[in-house]
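Re: beginner question about structure tokens

> Can someone show what the tokenized structure looks like for a real chain? I only ever see the sequence side.

Sure, here's an example I had lying around. Input first:
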Amino acid sequence: MNPASLKTSNFSQHLFWDINTEELDYEKNKNIIIQRVLQYGFLSDWLIIYKHYGLKVITEVTISLRDLDNKSIYFIASLSNIPVELFLCYTTKQSMPKHWDL
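And the corresponding structure tokens:
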């Protein structure tokens, strides 16, 4: 992982609209970076984090996230061959069902 290879200017502008990107630390803030890319990013954003962090780190972070949409959960579960039941965000959703699953 080369820290110089990851720059917020390379990501889609809408991902970090509410964050001062100059203060963004790519190791300390990898949870928010990975979560935003999975939920709101484009393929080009995914390729950036995949090249920088690798699937193992992305999976570790995703497993520990408390909130993530179903599409992202199943995407990472499929790529990593890890059952969705091991993802915290999946089990959290199961314990708090909504009236409608959108």
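Each token stands for a local structural state, so reading them left to right follows the chain. Residues 57 and 65 are 13 Å apart (CA to CA).
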